[in-house]
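INTERNAL AUDIT FORM
Audit reference: QA-55
Scope: verify that the stored structure record matches its stored sequence.
Auditor: D.O.
Record contents follow.
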Amino acid sequence: MRAVKENAEALVVAAKETGLEVNADKTKYVVMSRYQNAGRRHSMKTDNSSFERVDKFKYLGTTLTNQNSIQEEIKSRLKLGNACYHSVQNLLSSNLLSKNLKIKIYRTIIFPVVLYGCETWSLTLREERRLRVFENRVFRRIFGSKRDEVTGKWRKLYNEELNNLYSLPNILRVIK
């Protein structure tokens, strides 16, 4: 905690030297630790400024938490991906567009939104499953349904069939 305070004081001094002023109302800090008790104080005082401690904040579009957990980040990325998916849903289900064009739409519009900042993710099986479920839902919209040879009824494509139809690396391979 002392190192955080020293760095904050150095920031204030460096800002003053260049003619800038640190806005204490806008400046916040987070202590990243696996232990829940790390840095129990909720604000830090330097000279005549007080900086608030927060549990999470957005930095360059990525949510950082004090537990260094990516669950919140993946949840928000999938939420944004769903918004993109719903905005192009009519295109993905259109019979006028080829499947290759629909895949290109997915890869250029939805895929980058979901994978923004994924270089820093360390995935658990739960997160991997959530990402695959999202991707399979998009693929089912792109590839449509299939007529069952035995019953003659229309059915959703199975995950294995989706993997065979989609030749590019899936979302998990891109992350890893």
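Auditor finding: record pair retrieved intact. Helices lie at 2-17, 71-87, 89-92, 99-115, 125-143, 159-165, 171-175.
Action required: none
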